[in-house]
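Course assignment 3, question 2. Fill in each field.
Student: A.L.
Task: Predict the tertiary structure for the chain below.
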Amino acid sequence: MSLNHVRPWRNIYRRKSRQIMVGGVAVGGDAPIAVQTMTNTLTTDVAATVAQVQAAAEAGADIVRVSVPDETSSKALKEIVRESPVPIVADIHFHYRRGIEAAEAGAACLRINPGNIGDEKRVKEVIKAARDHNCSIRIGVNAGSLEKHLLEKYGEPCPEAMVESGLEHIRILQDNDFHEFKISVKASDVFLSAAAYQGIAEATDAPIHLGITEAGGLVSGTIKSAIGLGNLLWMGIGDTIRVSLSADPVEEVKVGYEILKSLGLRHRGVNIISCPSCARQGFDVIKTVEALEQRLEHIKTPMSLSIIGCVVNGPGEALMTDVGFTGGGAGSGMVYLAGKASHKMSNDQMIDHIVEEVEKKAAELDAAQEAAE
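Answer field:
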């Protein structure tokens, strides 16, 4: 749970779930909420896929999913797993044998879709392979591929149908004494997803993987995901997340972290607090923030930076951040360190100077953390 007893209105009480392992990453229980993405390269192009996995990991991805649509991809997966710095989830649809092959190839987790993986006998074979190779499973229910009997029963994809689909598959795993699983109930509709996730959260103690599937492009998909995932996370639901965007997987990771950071659930890198700018600004806020976002991407230490164009809110925001800059007049502004006004800096040198101050503060925080350990 994320608690701040000084400001109790910020407390988030996380749903209690069982903990499983996806490779070396703990999922559920009191483990941090894991950030996940998925490659969009051809899996058979090992070099391109590994490069994308590595880029996602560098951006902060804890887990990366890779599609395994055919036998050739299964063979490539073995090398991808060997070179990956993070656990790999094999995405399995339609062909249950791909699940068996992926487990043999070293996948840390198998994502199987109840709506298209096949009958119970085939699922049992996938379960055996997962058990034999120390591999967890994600039950991936999707509104767009629900089982025929559930669509006939409910008439359309609905929260009840999605929850029932998930519980049917949970039963199969548990009947086979397999408990290393998590579950997702995704839809592209925010309302449907949210209702299905609330229903499954009440019905099982399994770890939950959150996502709004096929959310859209970078802007529209980010907004839909922030609304859907943000509300569920605020309610305490969710143990892993994936922001599904028609964009570079690295962008998915960035957005996922920003959602978690906004709720105080994960902390990584520089959290920039900046104003939208107006006629009062003492410098070009928008261009400055764009430059700082790029130049501070290498900072992994959790810290805060305020960039405010004028003195209306600047000093107040700086009180709450590690480093701050507030626009003033005559081509310069005030630099704040640890919430206090420190010194003036000219606008034409501010970006380089702020980067130096942030790097210095990050080093101090890292040293303090190491000393505490």
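Instructor remarks: The two ends are 22 Å apart (CA to CA). The CA atoms of residues 159 and 196 lie 4 Å apart.
Grade: pending
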